[in-house]
Amino acid sequence: MSLRKTLTAVNQPSLPSDSSISAVNLDVSDSSASRINFRPRKIRKVSTDPLNPPLQITASPLSSKSTIDIALRHLQSSDEVLGTVISAHNNPPVFDSSCPPFLSLARSILYQQLATKAAKCIYDRFLSLFDGGESGVLPESVISISAVDLRKIGVSGRKASYLHDLAGKYLSGVLSDEMILEMSDEELIDRLTLVKGIGVWTVHMFMIFSLHRPDVLPVGDLGVRKGVKDLYGLKNLPGPLQMEQLCEKWRPYRSVGSWYMWRLIEAAKTKLSK
Q1: Is position 121 within any domain?
Q2: Which among 185, 190, 221, 230 is annotated as catalytic?
Q3: Domain that holds residue 142
Q4: Predicted structure pTM score
Q5: DSSP output for the chain
């Protein structure tokens, strides 16, 4: 079956759903939290000639249709193979989370290693512990809930320690929502992975779906790696270095390219199930 027919099989966009990457679902568009204003970031050097200063290309966060449209035009013109995938997919990417960073990170911890349905059930119980629901999930309120009380709603002891560590780092000033919004991608990885239970993959998902960073390539994500393998007809799953090399042409919109890799794998699964 052609690549176009395969992609057409998936009509509804969603977040990563591969069994290996379903632990975190940062789709929180129904949150009542105030929308965060994101700033454009300089993210790409396009000249390596020492006689000419490198030109910086600025890509805006993926929070508006106009930015998504620009990203799609860029990807279609820079990568003909990926362009076929984009053209075959009926729905454009959506990055519409409006959660504050602390809430998104707490939620990502709760969703780890759980099926989406079970994780949502625990998350809803977690919210019931706070006055105001999601708006009440603040560092001082999280740290005030004992591990025993968290275990009563289905949160493991280990995850309770992760939540307390995250809240503690906020209260000590190591982290804050304001700091997170100002950090570069590299700084985010360095700082957030200091929190117990948060690894590079979680930070990548957080940057894409919560902060809407446009140029994140989750090289360790199995779904994206499978997508790149199928897209370019590779014999084996690409490693981090090969991922960087193959997806270099997607800059400065590698987050959007990654989104289509998840859709590509979903389409392949749909095809096999028929």
Answers
A1: yes
A2: 221
A3: 101-209
A4: 0.79
A5: --HHHHHHT--S--S--STTTTT-----TT--SPPPP---EEEEE----TTSPPPEEEE--S-SHHHHHHHHHHHHHH-HHHHHHHHH-SS---------HHHHHHHHHHHTTS-HHHHHHHHHHHHTTSTTGGGG--HHHHHTS-HHHHHHTT--HHHHHHHHHHHHHHHTTS--HHHHHHS-HHHHHHHHTTSTT--HHHHHHHHHHTS--SS---TT-HHHHHHHHHHHT-SS---HHHHHHHTGGGTT-HHHHHHHHHHHHHHHHHHHH-
* Residue at 138 is within a domain: yes
197 falls within a domain: yes
In-domain check, residue 51: no
* Full pLDDT tens readout for the chain, 274 residues: 445 444 444 333 344 533 333 333 333 333 333 333 434 444 344 344 444 444 444 567 888 889 999 999 999 999 999 999 999 988 889 887 779 999 999 999 999 999 999 999 999 999 999 999 999 999 999 999 999 999 999 999 999 999 999 999 999 999 999 999 999 999 999 999 999 999 999 999 999 999 999 999 999 999 999 999 999 999 999 999 999 999 999 999 999 999 999 999 998 887 777 6
Q: How far is CA 210 from the centre of its chain?
A: 7
Task: Identify whether 221 is a catalytic site residue.
Answer: yes
Cis peptide before 101 (omega within 30 of 0): no
Rounded to whole angstroms, the Cα distance separating 15 from 51 reads: 43
Residues 219 and 84 in one domain: yes
Q: What is the CATH number of the domain that holds 195?
A: 1.10.340.30
Query: Which residues lie below 8 Å from residue 174, measured CB to CB, with a gap of 6+?
Result: 191, 194
